[in-house]
Design a protein that fits this description.
alpha/beta, 10 strands, globular, 318 residues
């Protein structure tokens, strides 16, 4: 309701001003057989529930996409066979492609899309160039299928402070070297990472260079085969890796993973470990009944009821 009121105010001031909203999305993949139904339900609700409420009051929909998480009961697991960002998001470029198609199928070209956030925490800058190129290719693949994408915003220009993780994960195309000067004041030296130049060339040429893509991937796989490690701002493998503490102030170290997660090559965790190749997720191949507005309203009612019950329990406990 707050969004709708703001939309009305802006349009009264200037009917030509575009008003949109950024919607955080991520793939929720089941960690085991018992997690298939909860993952599918949660994934559907997190994808469509909020956009459905505001679809008639936006000129574009922004999507914030970082990757996937493995749902394990009411928790999130960290798998030893999946590649992750330092912030604990599983690297999955195909997910962005499928999300863009899913929104296009549900809302049509009347609601264009912006990728308002997409990026990866990677202090080594070995993962970032490949991640960037594969996700841009995912967007291009969606555009080729008719999806109207107005623009792309990479997260982020320089290393930042994260609400949940502090300074541990390094998201920047530019490194920020934090140190104290002799007089006790803070020095914040900025140093461009290699990925800064990679992105600059892509912008200038409006294309992903095939040789750059292959060379960056080969270097990443070389590190994986040598069992090289990199910083990781989450607890290590197992269930509970993403719970409670919101991450680590000081990183641990985790090996690079020799798994092909590039666009079109990734084989899902569910397919590899629980034998489910295709899940009932809101992709472009989802049955019509599962993305119908009536089903969504029913699921929304169940969701809101469960949230209200949970809120009452929390208040009682307090």
């Amino acid at each position: 309701e707050a969004h709708k009121r703001v939309h009305a105010i802006v349009k009264r001031k200037d009917a030509n001003t575009m008003v949109g909203a950024a919607h955080h999305i991520g793939v929720l993949t089941p960690n085991g057989p018992a997690d298939v139904v909860p993952a599918a339900w949660s994934h559907f609700m997190f994808t469509f529930y909020f956009p459905d409420l505001i679809a008639s009051h936006v000129d574009f929909l922004g999507v914030n996409y970082y990757g996937q998480e493995l749902l394990a009961g009411a928790d999130v697991a960290v798998s030893p066979t999946e590649e992750y960002s330092e912030a604990g998001r599983g690297v999955y470029p195909d997910g962005l492609y499928h999300f863009l198609l899913a929104f296009h199928r549900r809302y049509g070209s009347k609601l264009p899309l912006w990728v308002t956030e997409n990026g990866v925490a990677d202090a080594t800058d070995n993962l970032r160039p490949v991640y960037l190129m594969e996700h841009l290719l995912a967007i291009q693949a969606a555009i080729a299928r008719g999806v109207k994408v107005l623009g792309y915003v990479f997260w982020t220009m320089s290393d930042n402070w994260e609400w949940a993780d502090g300074y541990c994960p390094k998201f920047g195309l530019v490194e920020v070297r934090r140190s104290l000067k002799d007089d006790g004041t803070l020095a914040l030296e900025r140093v461009k990472r290699r990925s800064f130049g990679v992105y600059q060339k892509i912008i200038q040429s409006n294309a992903v260079d095939t040789r750059e893509r292959e060379a960056s991937w080969d270097e990443l796989m070389r590190l994986a085969k040598e069992n090289a490690t990199r910083p990781f701002c989450r607890a290590l493998e197992g269930v509970g890796g993403m719970t409670g503490a919101f991450g680590l102030d000081e990183p641990v170290h985790r090996p690079w993973i020799a798994k092909d997660w590039r666009l079109g090559a990734y084989r899902t965790h569910a397919a590899e470990h629980i034998g489910v190749e295709h899940l009932p997720l809101p992709w472009h191949t989802t049955p019509e009944w599962m993305i119908s507005k009536d089903v969504a309203k029913g699921l929304a009612y169940i969701y809101e009821s469960s949230v209200n019950v949970s809120s009452r329990v929390i208040r009682d406990e307090l």
